[in-house]
Amino acid sequence: MTDVATEKPRRGRPPVSDEQRQRQRLDISRHAVRLFADQGVAATSGEQIAQAAGVSERTFWRYFPHKESCVEPLLTKMVDAFCEVLHDWPRELELVDHLREAYSPLLDAATDEDIEAVLAVVRLTHGERALRAAYLMLRERAEDALGEVLAQRAGLARDAIEVRVQAAAMSAVLKVATDDVATAAADGVTRETLEGHREQIATALRGLSRML
Amino acid sequence: MTDVATEKPRRGRPPVSDEQRQRQRLDISRHAVRLFADQGVAATSGEQIAQAAGVSERTFWRYFPHKESCVEPLLTKMVDAFCEVLHDWPRELELVDHLREAYSPLLDAATDEDIEAVLAVVRLTHGERALRAAYLMLRERAEDALGEVLAQRAGLARDAIEVRVQAAAMSAVLKVATDDVATAAADGVTRETLEGHREQIATALRGLSRML
DNA sequence: CGCTTAATGGCAGATGGTGCCAATAAATGT
DNA sequence: ACATTTATTGGCACCATCTGCCATTAAGCG
């Protein structure tokens, strides 16, 4: 057991660092999304993506188990950032107010191009079944993270029914808001677009609480 | 335009009725789900399903565009039934109360075997990514139907933000409740299991409203 | 420079899924 | 009964997705 500091008399070529691998995936992801947006998912072959990214088809399939999961790195980048913001949501603040404070840095962390790409993917998910499926799966992962945060805030078990319900509901709200912003930003992203997202979330949350 | 009673001097073999086609799909669906549950989705080939259902592989692929969509007929049967119950949800009643009144007939409409199969699929979705994706897509269709109902009740446009948010939130709640019941009913379905579902939904909805 | 281990690329092969055409089934008209 | 017409079916060829296996190359270390 107690492998406190696993002994490491490493001998051969060291495995590539995790960040390196993530960066590679992200790079391929960008190429793939561009192709998806240009010619559709079905019309884009794995071979094409691999070629665009400058790797062999074989290694491409090693990096991505399915074609649609190419969108994952780009999207998770955003989702993870959002989860981080959520994570240090102080107990005494309303969520909306917290977002107003902490949301902008999130946006500065990503390039405009990446943001544009993410929104493009979200728009694509409306016509491309395969992408929609991948997108929904990803949102469930986000919902999970959200559940952790909520459980901690409420001092309840992660699998308490209230926690899971609230996480699911908030996640659903976020989905609606995000979809709205993505379609609104169909042509060009401006800073207002994104602050619009923040406000859209606020509106949506209000709509939820008015529900009873 | 005005094709009031479309003239029909039909000449050749008439297309099979829609119900016929649905029944055929449902039949194949049952075989497929059994195989999925027994040996996993990945290990079940289209050829195998076709053979089990007694059709050629070619026609199988005509009935189902993807392997995972085999679960669709069984699930939609339930979802549609639920939507129907929702549809005549009288304005003056709380949802929970309405369900208490109208939920049982829903269950009587289906055979125990089908209910068992549906729950089995829901359980399967936790380990089988492909099924999870299909399941989520289907839930989105249900969310859409829910949106229609809510819009009508509230006298708002279908695409009003409040309507969409509420539909998404309720749908999410339903998802949690359903998941709970499916895992709870892992071994054998009893009538209590299903009344449990109704109460689980009630609990979940309360949890949601407590959220603010 | 040799030794060791990780990543890559190439190739064969199973499975998913589609287009095309021939065969058959179910109706109607003569 | 038989020809005609149209819908469904099944068979076949074919491309794309994805995996297992092995040779090759890359990256560290003494």
Overall pLDDT of chain A, averaged? 87
The fraction of residues in strands of chain A falls at under 5%
Describe the biggest sheet of chain A?
none
Q: How many helix segments of chain A?
A: 9
Give the N-to-C terminal Cα separation of chain A: 52 Å
- Largest interface: pair, residues per side: A-B, 28 and 28 residues
pLDDT < 50 stretches of chain A: none
Order of helices and strands of chain A: HHHHHHHHH
The radius of gyration of chain A is: 19 Å
- How is the quaternary structure best described? homodimer
What would you note in describing this structure?
- 2 copies of one chain form a homodimer.
- The first copy, chain A, is mostly helical and 212 residues long.
- Helices cover 71% and strands 0% of the residues of chain A.
- Chain A has helices at residues 18-39, 46-53, 57-63, 72-87, 95-109, 112-124, 129-154, 161-184, 191-209.
- Chain A is globular, with a radius of gyration of 19 Å.
- At the A-B interface, α7, α8 and α9 of A face α7, α8 and α9 of B.
- Chain B binds a DNA duplex (30 and 30 nucleotides) through α3.
